[in-house]
Amino acid sequence: MPLNLQANFSEPGQRYFRAFTPGDDFYQTLIDTHRDLSDEQSAMVNAKLVLLLANHIGDITVLREAMHIAHNDA
Prior knowledge:
Blueprint: H1 21-34, H2 39-57, H3 60-73
């Protein structure tokens, strides 16, 4: 499975009027997750999210591609 670089946010059962709305909902949830955390706590949340989502994806080839793109864009 190749890495999907297109917007791919959705929520089962939700219908959205605009295509960008699910991405906005995700971003708001991400911001809310970090609210009231110290910088250290926020970094820990990010690290745990990376590991949890990497485990969910599971495909090492996809994960390597994502890490390569993220590294080159840094």
